[in-house]
Amino acid sequence: MNHAIACEALAKRYGTLAALDGVSACVPRGRVIGLLGHNGAGKSTLIKLILGLIAPSGGRLDVLGQSPWRAHALRRRIGYLPESATFYASLSGRELLDYLARLKQAPRGQAQALLERVGLAHAADRRIGTYSKGMRQRLGLAQALLGSPELVLLDEPTTGLDPQATRELYRIVGELRADGRCVLISSHLLAELEPHIDGALILRQGRLLAAGSLDALGEQAALPARVLLHPRGDAAGELLARLDARGLPAQRRPDGRLELQVPRAGKLPVLRELLADPAVADLDVREPTLAQLYDWLGAGQRSAAEACA
């Protein structure tokens, strides 16, 4: 089984409301995938289905080769960090992990190593009620890693984390990927998420809008690339006129560079031509960001024109 998650025509209805409607997608093992969509898009419903907390209304879902609502032991192979994790305030971090390890039938000896891994070793024996929000979030990550799960689901995992703790979280995510484990991250912080994922599932109103690697999504959207030109000397005016004559109108930026949009189709010939222009000292190519792809594909609130502005 090469896929951690595989679903076909997956549906979940609550009365007349279709929370998920005909979702078909595969998530490979050993990949970090972003689960994206606005509030109400169906992300939480999909996570609950993967965890086996609810049963589908139709379609098929395999998680690590099993049906999650029929194989309760499967949950021991899955780690989950909910968006708003709540723990027993009277327990210490170590006591909580020991307790949850017993419930999950995971080795209790993991508690100390996991607390060290998430930067909580110094507070292992403090009551959780004294933890800051960021510390509780790191404790939530530690409990999600109990039992060395093959699949880890993280729902808004950087909530409450400072920049250093955020970097540490994504370092751990990278380690899980390198170890062949699959990580599914639901987040609205697209710019923060983008460098750390291999691909994305994008939901809108219960339907799968797009799925695939970021390169594949870029090809699907066919957004133009932004090119920043560094004019040589005082050649900016001459270069602007020449670009306009070529059908490549550019704008002058406050920093002196010129910015233009280059269509994805035929991009390489245009870039070669620009590099050969004696008025160009250097150029910088900016591919569409994940946020721009998200908007362009119709998942966000911005229009296509605004997305590439």
Describe what you observe in this structure.
By secondary structure, this protein is α/β, with parallel strands linked by helices. It has helices spanning 43-51, 93-104, 110-117, 133-144, 163-178, 190-193, 214-221, 236-245, 267-276, 290-296, 304-307; strands spanning 3-14, 17-28, 32-36, 58-63, 78-81, 151-155, 182-186, 199-204, 207-213, 225-231, 251-252, 258-262, 280-286. The strands form 3 sheets. The chain has a 6-stranded mixed beta sheet with strand order 5-6-7-3-8-9. A 4-stranded antiparallel beta sheet has the order 11-12-10-13. Strand 8 (199-204) and strand 9 (207-213) form a beta hairpin. Helix 2 packs across helix 3 (110-117).
The portion of residues assigned to helices is 25-40%
Reading the helices and strands in chain order gives: EEEHEEHHHEHEHEEHEHEEHEHH
- Can you give the mean pLDDT? 90
> Over all CA atoms, what is the radius of gyration?
23 Å
For the largest beta-sheet, the strand count, sense and barrel status come to: 6 strands, mixed
Poorly predicted sequence stretches spanning 5 or more consecutive residues = 301-309
Query: How many beta-strand elements?
Result: 13
Shape: globular
Q: Give the percentage of residues in beta strands.
A: 25-35%
Strand order of the largest sheet: 5-6-7-3-8-9
Structural class: alpha/beta
Distance between the termini: 42 Å
Helix count, DSSP H or I runs of 4 or more residues: 11
Keywords: ATP-binding, Nucleotide-binding, Transport
Protein name: ABC transporter ATP-binding protein
Organism: Rhodanobacter humi
InterPro entries: AAA+_ATPase, ABC_transporter-like_ATP-bd, ABC_transporter-like_CS, ABC_Transporter_VariousFunc, P-loop_NTPase
